[in-house]
Amino acid sequence: MPLKDYEASKQKVRELQEQCQKEAVECKQLETELSQLRNVLSEAEITRQTEEIKRKLAADEKKLAMLESNAVLITAEERAAAEKALAKTLEAWRKRRGMFRNIWGAISEDMDGKQADLFDEIGVETDEAAGADMAEAERLMPGNKRMRR
């Protein structure tokens, strides 16, 4: 191959490489644009979401209006029944908790090791592990009344 043809071929290769790089950059830009377009919601999806938000807004406005009008949401009887059920449940919790502590105290007198580790091993779920707080639950009672037997 003569030198002139070689130089011409070399020039042609450089031009083709430059063109290839330009095409690659353009391709990357088009892929980015396509990705952005795919992430955009369609008109139907936007309409559906708008309707859903409007329904939620209407329900929330209705609820707000009812609360602002000081409407009675539950009757006195329903409240009394709920308070009685809470008091009964708290009393049962307190009783069973005391029974367990008495029994556990007798069983664990001479045991070595951490109590928490043993509870984990045998599957005892404490109030703390369950995220329950007797004092916090008792504060829910109006006037902190305890149910009397």
From TrEMBL:
Which intervals hold domain Leucine zipper with capping helix? 75-129
Q: Which residues form a coiled coil?
A: 3-70
The record's listing under InterPro entries reads:
LZ3wCH
- Molecular function terms from GO: double-stranded DNA binding; recombinase activator activity
Which compartment or compartments is the protein found in?
Nucleus
Q: Which GO terms describe its biological process?
A: homologous chromosome pairing at meiosis; meiotic joint molecule formation; meiotic strand invasion involved in reciprocal meiotic recombination
Give the record's GO CC terms. condensed nuclear chromosome; DNA recombinase auxiliary factor complex
Pfam families linked:
LZ3wCH
Q: Where is this region: Disordered?
A: 130-149
Q: Does the keyword Nucleus apply?
A: yes
UniProt KW keywords: Coiled coil, DNA recombination, Meiosis, Nucleus
- The protein's superkingdom reads Eukaryota
Q: What is this protein called?
A: Leucine zipper with capping helix domain-containing protein
Q: Which organism is it from?
A: Chlamydomonas incerta
* The organism's taxonomic lineage, starting at the top: Eukaryota, Viridiplantae, Chlorophyta, core chlorophytes, Chlorophyceae
